Predict the 3D structure of the following.
Amino acid sequence: MTLLKLTKGVKQNLVITQQYDEIKSTINLLHLQGTAVVIVGKAPSFWLLCIAHWALYIARKYDTCDLKADPKCRGLEQMIADYPLTLNDLGVITSLCTFLVVFYTGHCFARYSLIYGECIAIQGKLHNISLYLRTYYTYPTHRWSVLRYLLASHEIFYWSIRKRYYDWKKSQFISQNPGTFEDLIENALMKKGLLLRQEGKALQTYGGEVAKLFFA
């Protein structure tokens, strides 16, 4: 048996490009590529909110009074001189940022686990259906006539996931554009024999939600 070596070229062709070696725990902890930390760090809204938090924190810490109305009031320069910013002030912002990043990472992983489980369930159910068809239908042509529509909807479902992700991230994390719905029909469904040409032409005129064709 030949073992597959996870070279750079092999990883680019994998569905899950981020592969971890469970033995190298230290490297995994220090590895940032493919994690939510990189995505959050590149988001302008994250840094904008950090600056807003800093501004509000400084304004609250150095809240001054009216020098003319209160003789005991100290000005901003005197307040900064008496209470300069220290590294301890980073604790509030760092704790808040850490909480947000950890919460966001946990939320992303929960959504990933949910969709991964659903995809595995879909694969298993489709496999079970194919076994049932082998039991109920004697002729292979009859089995294929029933199963090809399920396989076509299966292809449409996974294409819709890749297409939405590609459009959302604008090819930042996916190098291959899954193409349009018409490309899927022409290059995948009809070429594999899942749809006849007249069926493919009729499907191209479908104006509803494409992802819901899987549940139709």
